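Record pair follows.
FIRST:
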Amino acid sequence: MNKTTLVSITIIIIGVTSLVWWSKSIENRELNANNLTKSHPARTGNVAANTLTALETFYDFGTISMKNGNVSRVFRVTNPTNEDIKVPSLTTSCMCTTAYIIKENGSKSRPFGMPGHGGTVPKANEIIKAGGSLDIEVVYDPNAHGPAGVGMIDRFVYLEDEAGNKLQFEIKANVTP
């Protein structure tokens, strides 16, 4: 074998090894992210004082099309304690995602979004009565990122009580044109 062939084979082996290592690191990050979300779908078990819970905190829309517009999911938040809990903050992880508080009469609150985009996010200032519940509607706009916004998405909504406890909701989808 000549020197050029040996150098070429060495470069190819290094390139293939690097690609395999890189793909494994991405796969491990995705597995870790999925395990964190799916193995802990909601806070359960012994409930600390002033802790909000939800039976469902993750939803996968599957494959959705940009041409069909917005998709939404309602998550129910429960106050299992014997004290009212004030909820001052409801925010999202991206400007393409909006959250609404659904009032007892069925009406929706103003939209809550991502901090820092389009001004400040208004305070939620909701109170969940002892033993009561509250519905949060999460709306995802697949067109928000334009034509480049196709593929897998993973977005979050954060509901925070006045003690600083956060309840996180996650939505996923595979966006097609």
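SECOND:
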Amino acid sequence: MSDIKMIRVDGRQVGVQGLEQALHEMADRLAEMPEEKAGEALLQRLAADNYVPEAARAAYVKALGRELSRHLGRPMSEEEGGKPVLSIQVLGPGCANCQELTQRVMRVLDQLGAPAELEHLRDMLAIAAFDVVATPGLCIDGRIVSSGRVPSEAEIREMIIQAQG
């Protein structure tokens, strides 16, 4: 079973099964395509393992194209309404504290209505690349904002607001 990655589709957090694997396998081939065409190719690849309502297809294409841009290290497009999309990673092996941090971040994002791509990195090599000293770690737009503890929802809210500028 492949991992589920949380992405923002039309303003809502949605889990997409197999996205990381698809990105690793297809990124080089999709890199030269416009974001929309790349998103369509990713959607076709992921359709067997993920339910996508026909009415939401265009939103998924846009979100998957945005996710490819994030994967390639390019600036991500904006969501409808012109708000920049934050990139947030929870870093940790999946312990209770990591799960709690992920849940708190999701609640705060929902309360703020902040467009964000949220993923929970469990792979220790990927976590080590962030140079975090202790888990759980929280990274927003490539910057470690917390390490070794689970910040309160109020603290997370301030971190996200600060990252939004």
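COMMENT: The chain has two domains: 4-71, 86-164.
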